[in-house]
Amino acid sequence: MFSSNHTCASKETRNALPIISVTEGSETLHCLLLFIYPSYIPASEPVLLIGDLCRVAKAAQKYCMDCIKDKVKMVFTSDLLEEHAFRVYVSALNVGWTDIAATAALNTIKTPLSDLPFSTLFPASTPTIT
Asked: Domain locations in the chain?
């Protein structure tokens, strides 16, 4: 972000470096920093949710943190891909990772419709057409 190739919207500087506006919430930045400093995760730290991973991935893209983006991709393509294929599919599309979304979409085929998150919105029986 500080390279000469990157355009910065802010003209404010300190010590000749541009000041970058951070719009993410503290929880997202906390999760992002846990990917940088994983040894500081206390045993009581909750496991990251898929929504957290999606926000971290977007922040990593915004701040040009390719190594963090790659780590989040590895988490998405781990056991999550099979256990929560529908959520990974939606999150991967949201981040723009069409390759992971395509793999997750294939994994949703294995999931019974009754187990999908939206299935409770529809009645169990389907009307018949006569």
From this structure: 1-72, 77-130
